[in-house]
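Cross-posting from the modeling subforum.

Setting up a comparison between two proteins and wanted a second pair of eyes on the formatting. Protein 1 (sequence, then structure tokens):
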Amino acid sequence: MKANTTEQPQKKDNEFFVHGNCSSCKARIEKAAKDAGANSANWDVETQKVTLDFNPAKTSADKILKKIAEVGHDNEKYKASDEVYKNLPSCCLYDRSLPLGVKGELAHSDEDLAPKQNSPSKADHLGKTLEEVRLLKIQQATALSKKEAGLTYNIGSKELLKAACCNLSESFETNATVDVSFSNAVTGTKQLKMLGLDQKYTALTKELLPEIRGLASAYGLNLIPGRWISGIQLTKGGSTVTNGYESVTGQINTELLKFKNENETSINLFADANLRTEANITSTQKLSEKWNQSVLLHGNGTFGEADYNDDGFLDQPKGNQLNAAYLLNFDDLNQSGFGSHFGINFLKDERIAGQKGFDKKLPQSAQSLYGVGIDISRIQLWNKTGYVFKGKPYQSLGWMNQFTHHEQNSFFGFRNYDGQQNTYYSNLIFEGIFGNTNHKYKTGASFLYDDFNENYLTQNYKRTETVPGLFFEYTLTGEKYTLVAGARTDFHNLAGTQFTPKINFKYDLSPKTILRLSAGRGFRTANVFAENQQYFASNRQIEILGNGGKIYDLKPEIAWNYGISLQQEFQLFNRKSMIVADFFRTDFQNQVLTDLDASPHKILFYNLDGKSTANALQTQWDFSPAKNFDVRLAYKYYDVQAEYLSGKREVPFMAKNRGFANFSYSTNKNDQGGFWSFDTTLNLVGKQRIPDTKSNPAEFRLPEYSNSYATLNAQIAKDFNKNIRVYLGGENLTGYTQNNPILDAKNPFGNYFDGGMVYAPIMPTNVYVGIDLKF
């Protein structure tokens, strides 16, 4: 892929192009310049220029640039020796193949966006202080960061366009790290799983603010439109303490579209064979030199009544969603040092499911058909403001605030569930250094307020959680290693004082071999109703076996996660190739178990009394056998077990063995910028344990384990130019569907009805088309 050869900005006589990456580079370049006699030197990571002030009688630009090269930084007059360059810290290894004046991460012409956290300019330090993911252009659709101490994948827009990606739950179809599960045969909801554990143990954030948690757990993935996403940052295992205490298996952060280099308005239209339709309008505009905005609009509707297995139930719910967001950004970092980001999001989502012919306008008691209705309203307001200290680009202060109101009104046959959640979140972060930028730290305070009001059947559950917290994180950067160690203390009014340490360590065994270690603790309060709605469409009665805790009479969940990974790059077919192998283990000290085995007529919730562990092994190989042809192969092994009341068992609906293959090919661009792209993804899913149904009559029993199966998704897209793109795709092209996904579907008000025993696709092969237009 060719480097971006756009015209370089004009420079003054005392400005010179110098390659570099980060704050360590900045300190090294400026020190070398002063050692060579400069009165002052200021190197900027964005422009890749150093501005020199020196006395020509004492030194010269030639001497200064020669000294800068001697410490490892190529410039417009001298090139560093290979030996010195290779001995730079990994974060400083800039791309030497790029022309001077072009940043490494910004060098590629494709508009492939992916988030990144660590960079030293004023703008980037504001982003770090706000914990805001910066959007960078990278070559790969999905890139594993070599600089981060944690195992962090940056998923760009190119990756998101490989599949339909109508919402966040579909954004990981071509990613091997996250498993997308089919969790309900009636409501059609999907859930993510990472490291062998449910979605609730992964911190899901938007703009690095709390997003999918609490009452939004079941349906929150459907509430972030795919066309609004500019990039996703996925961290496995240990994550930073600055973002809170709830992360156990990692963090997935979503960044919304923002203004880049020019005004842009996009329209996306989508439809599939099951009459699911969608429209998206996004517009990013520069308002003035310091202000820009994003307007994001989304609407979808599902109008078809699909029942391919003829069980009388809709295979997917009908309904619609209206979703709108407005982002306003202020950037005066280079002048006053201030920057700010404002956002507001409002949505309304309505779904109807159940038996064909059910009329939502009539009460359930007035009709014999079984129905499900889910209405969600949500509004969010947020702001992130930061200040970078004058003359100290490594020192900054940021403050994030967000208010969320989430409301759900729903019924599942005669079972009603309504809930309201009001959340206020605030996080104040100060970033600085000890001596030099090899010793960085972040410290600050956070506050979380959650007010829950839930009604299940005739019972009301209210609680208010207030959680002030303090945190500190230290980053040590050496020539071949990076250590990030942090801890936080949170004073939870219901869960008591909780101490949460986390550590990430990266060591470069060689420039192409990276070893990572991580360990950390997380805790959370379970929302047993909201997080288990996939079982509401059944005859199962809920029982909470309390133990005196203050949340549903249960104690908070506590877990430790440990991880090790090895990243190896090498050449194959004279092209870059990479293998990553990682292993993570999660040990629960306390867990709220969802027990479906005690009886097929009950769901039991209780705190763990014994051991609960999850072992997750993954190997992934990325390579390019030919130009424009990328291959990603992965194998995952999960061993997830818990000690239930009935004894030690495998956690249900978790396949021990999974295989993954993604193939992506694109043609060369023509003179108008047009090209074809082809993508296909194969998922192999091994057998899964199914909850015990032996006490049911024979016709309503399920086997102990499911069958293995495979799914295949594919898409063909044609970019006519940079403004017009059309695509045609197919999902579940193998046509595999689960037999009998709903037990006793003919008698939904009977004792054996159960729509929650889902382990495989319900919908057969589906075909979709779409068009993207840019202005």
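Protein 2 (same layout):
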Amino acid sequence: MGSPAPRVQIRVLCLRIIAQKVESERFYRDEGQMNAALPIDDVMPELIEAVRNRGCAVLQAPPGAGKTTRVPLALMDTGIVQGKIVMLEPRRLAARAAAERLAQQLGESTGETVGYRMRGETKVSGATKIEVVTEGILTRMIQSDPELPGIGAVIFDEFHERSLNADLGLALTLEVREALRPDLVLMVMSATLDAGPVAELVNAPIVTSQGRAFAVEPRWLDRPLHKEIRFDQAAADLVAQAVGETQGGVLVFLPGEGEIHRVQARLDGRLPDDCAIRPLFGALPFTEQRAAIAPVTSGRKVVLATSIAETSLTIEDIRVVVDCGKSRRARFDPGSGMSRLVTERVTRAEATQRAGRAGRVAEGLAYKLWSKGEDGALTAFPPAEIEAADLTGLAVELAVWGGDGLPFLTDPPEHALSEARVLLTALGALDDGRITSHGRALAKLPLHPRLAHMLVTGGKPSAPLAALLSERDILLGAPSDLSLRIKILSGERGPHPVHKSALARVKQEAKRLAKFAPDLPLQPPEIYAAMAYPDRIALRRSGNEPRYVLSGGKGAYMDSADPLAGQRLLVVTDTDGNPREAKIRFALSISEADIRDVADTLISTINTCAWSKRDGKVLARKQERLGALVLSDTAWKDAPADEIARAMLDGVRMLGFKFSPAAERFRARVALVRANDPSIPDLSDDALNNTLDDWLLPYLNGVQTAAHWKSHDTLQALRATLTWEQMQLIDREAPAQFTTPLGRHTPIDYSTEAPEITLRIQEMFGTTRHPTVAGRPLRVTFLSPGQKPIQTTMDVPRFWATSYADVRKDMRGRYPRHPWPEDPTQADPTLRAKPRK
């Protein structure tokens, strides 16, 4: 690869001098000796050459290599970027800190050559050439003007975090670069990302910076942590051990704010007096965040941080990392439309990123709250946010852009995207999959589409609730009722402690959001909540426990001691996201009248006929429904007969068949003929069950209950399954009746092994040939005058000649009034008896 331009070499040299003589004392120290050289400097010529030749590059550099602080300034001075350089950072704190460090290297303040832009805060000027932005800002810039006028380069920093906004921003940038701006310089930078797939997607060369600035020694537990030891206790013990064995600042990685406070409490009194504990998490006021990353004037500091400290953020004086091995991620269940936070084990990439924080300014140590054996079982990378996040915002952006097909590094799950579009349709943002004017208005607001819809539809009075729902809870230990928080916002006092910094942020955000909203009349807060959460209107189930069904179809519950537990209807704004039955965290009570007012277009009248297993009958009901909620339920008195019959079919499937004797004989006759002629319909149980709609439905008129079905004769319906020709064949080959010598018709039973007739013996007198059907002999069962079986035969003439004499001897004494001739073949058939004397 060729040598870099002379100007590039000069720039690199200048950067080193500036770092040494101006600002490097704050950022790059090793036991008091200034050290401006960073690993990224070695590959800077290769990186610049790749950008010059290809217009794009993927930079893979370990933590502490200097990519955030070196690359934008080097690109600015090469002349290959025509226009402003936009660099994306995953978090607000990282974006502000990166801009400040870049500006300091130029001897300037932010807002001059280097500026930043994020939600609710912008510091740029006409002289700004490098703009550090949070990731969602780029999407707004592209959607506003896809040609990105005045922008010459886009840098995706810390792309390994794979946020949803970063994935979307990269996909949009690739489309812009291909269709409108082939001159746009594109660079993707990451510390731990598997660079191959990204380079293939971007069609860019990979530039790799080997090694971090200083070595980091890992220290694992001797054995896996015992399950009975509480996590916060084990974390505090490891922090105390690390402080006791080392020198310099300590950075502790914990999954969330709650764990930070609990570990901090357990460290009270266990650390030396010169140790200052500094929490660091996203909801912390910026002044306290700055205190955590700034160097201490004396002693040492212990920073208890969330994953916010994994990014390009440089935390001063850190020599030791304590990785507690947990990470908190959002998991979205598209079936319930709810997100929940889950705490999981860190991945190998996250552990590497965290450990690298100890090698930023000197050789360091990384204590890990797991054993070396467990280390090998860590998964390689965390899941991309697009795989597990709420995709409602993404669905809006895709609709504004004009459809699917963007070149995503990881395609969004189709099911989750489909559920997001269902919600957007309910909010009026989509119509038949296409963006509406209302949807475009929502996309321009810096809010989740739910809250944006509430702000646009409810106007300025809804801004406080929108801010309240988009920030952390302002009350400590309060029940679920959001009206308690709204009263605090309006200046009232309550019985619960107030989180003052959170309250200040909510008030500030409410003022900012009100600027985007129209002037509309004030409405109750539950109306606004129902606008944003039409799928989370909750109806209390019957019973003593406060369990609810949501309009979206999922179940939810709340603590029985909660003041809202007795309310019939709620609007639920937040749950713990459990996909089976979610716990309600925040809600507002709402009346049915208000629901009908705000969700009128979503309420539908549905007439239903359904089989009730509990009642054992068809229930015809007229219902008003909001999603899965039944707001009213009355009898459907004029339900069509065919609807009732169709519902009765479900009852038949549950109750099963009970055929009359005539119907069973008919099925047996059909089965006998079908054995020789497969064209005859199959009337077996399985076949009839599979074709209920065809043969039974037309004959269920008037049948609505289990009792009706029990007495219903299906013979007519069964006969209707055969054509006239087939019935003629059945009657000929397997007639239903046998004509006795007296001319009387007696039914033939085909359910036995051989077709059988049963009749009194006197009725067959004079018969000299055995009766047959379809060429087969009938089984004849002779009955006594008392209707008791006395003989069964398959050969009547032989019976007369043999066994009859014994039967006559026995029967004539018991039934003397009935004829018992010596030669029955010569007697006339009869059913008469001799008259009494």
